[in-house]
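User: structure tokens for this one?
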Amino acid sequence: MDMFRNFLRWQVIVRTLVVLVSAGTFLLYGNLIANHIIKSERDRQLSELAQLALRKSEAIISKSASALHDFIARGAIDCSSEPLQRVRFFIYRDSYIKDARIVRPDVTMLCAAFTETIEFDRGWVTGSDALPSEGDTTVRLFQVRQFMATPLGIVINIDDQISLAGIMPIDGTLLDVMPDSLRDYSMVSLSLTNGAVLSRQGSWSNLGRTSDTYDLTVESERFPIRTTIRVNKASMTNWNPAPFVPILISTGILGAIFGLLLSRNLFRPKSRLEEFDIALAQGQITPFFQPIFELDSGTITSAEVLARWVTPDGTIIPPVRFIDLAEENGRMPQMTWHLLATALKEMRQLMAVNTTFCLSINIAPSHFLAADFVSKLRTTVASANCAPERVMLEITEREEFPDLDAAAAIVEQLRGYGFKFAIDDVGIGHSGLSQIQRLRGDRLKIDKFFVDSVNHDVVSSSMIGMLVRLAEELDMDVVAEGIEDRAQVDALLACGIHKGQGYLVSPPVAARHFIQLVAKHNAGPTQELATARAA
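Assistant:
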């Protein structure tokens, strides 16, 4: 018995020694390990923010370079009157290029689209200032030195005698990527790889000395640009505090905190894209429905399917925070099929009772032109036991089709199967009338931009009237988007529009609330619209 008691006593001593050794080990090295983890986390977070600013800048440069290439391909360019006039018209139409110069391949200036803008230059660049791009060897970038700004210059060689240089102001909002709590204590800059700064977002005043800041630079693999983030250390620590005090209290608390930090870094999404992929896989990206209604009676005749991200705690994330992410990373097809299949399932009972009810869904041009789009659409709709005539595909004018002929052919093919088409955002998108003429949809959707001022702006009323007459000529119906008050209903009825969509009847809502809304509105005219007619 005494031997057993001694054994237990020694066991307690050994366990105590193990605990003390573990505590000593964590006290000695835990701080270093925690610092390493927190530094890695901080660097990852800053790198993601810098990469976001860089991607936004790359996208603007890429679109501008593409616009210049397209313009060069349309005809000869020199300093004579007619080509210069063409350059001016190009600048008026393009949303990024604000000025242009005709130059030699060594960037020596020959003439300017607008001679008066030369007065703002603080001297023109030389050939060595124009930096080549990795992604497109025909594109060189340089800083334009002007008195009021430092815009970005893009030069593209036309031949061995002449080149076209576009001038593009860099908006500081491209660099507005920092969280709210760090925005006043950070600086984000965009510069060329030769050190020429193009734009900054933030202020030096709250950063402190260089030794008081974290700095991180990310360079583009496509263009000679880089983004740099500089953030105040104390503010960064407050934003993402390190658990130093609990680590040093005891080995148990240290172990728990270390485990939490490790599990958080191992299992939580490492980027916004990964978080979105998880949400998509778990069905958190769900369809919401906004009614399309008769203006004179309030009867709901159809609905547009809109994406919402509903988190497990019930928070609804609007599409502006994830649609661009899905488009840029090729997730739109997967999301669209999920939304369509889910929407058809949720509306199955309503569509069985109301045999004329139709669902419409937005389709991105790149997705529409995919090789398997037609077969996948037919399979998805057939699997839901839904007739193709009950599905309307909305093609937005906000994004241009890379191949309009191919798009028109697909529209014709799908129309043969019974599907319907709407041209969305009419009046503010790409190649308006030409796209409408080629695609020949079943419906025109007039953008909220015109509806907002229809009851007090003659120009908006005239534009809407013109679109209504165009729709009548093409045998299309018209839906006005963004209706918010009763005065707009009267004005739209006067313009010849009989269908609408907007918050006057309802914002986008989940399926259960939408079905209740249909039951309420289709029982008779709504009070809002009845009052609008009587006013």
